[in-house]
Amino acid sequence: MSILVGKEAPDFEASGLLDGKFGKFKLSDYRGKWVVLCFYPGDFTFV
Amino acid sequence: MKELGVEVLSFSVDSVHSHKVWQETELSKMVDGGVAFPMLSDGGGKIGEQYGVYNGAVDVRGRFIIDPEGVIQAMEVLTPPVGRNPDELIRQIKAYQHQQATGEVMPSGWQPGDPTLKPTDDLTGHVWEVWKP
Description:
The structure holds two protein chains of two kinds.
Chain A (H helix, E strand, L loop, with lengths): L12 E6 L2 E6 L7 E6 L8
Antiparallel strand pairs in A: 1-2
Chain B lengths: L5 E7 L3 H15 L8 E3 L4 H5 L10 E6 L5 E7 L7 H17 L24 H4 L3
Parallel strand pairs in B: 1-2
Antiparallel strand pairs in B: 3-4
């Protein structure tokens, strides 16, 4: 795998939970904003 | 994160239904009203794979700062046993936001409010004169 920093972030679309509701979320919808992506091994663990 | 104008998205390979149960049974007891950012389901680790954090079973602790142009500016990846340091995340976001607003650069160990450096040809070989940690 090559270096990721300084490169365009890979776009994605995923199902998610926000305010108790399910929806679809795309990285490209956040263009123009600072974004932090946070991956973690599993629910019910510490983040 | 709100004050910095940063949107957070979290990912694990769990389903959105698992996220909901976790939110309702545990997270809402730790944070009033539960976590305020979208919790996404990365089924099969497809997104984690693209970001180099999927280990074949789960997404390890990867964290990426993406700027308004959609460019990854910083990343940190930890194996599961150790949690992250939110203060360091905030420091890095403030540093990148300052850099993009001013063109200035942040020397090693920089904290918000500390002196920055203005990158010029004259600075080469003279950093010692202006930066005394």
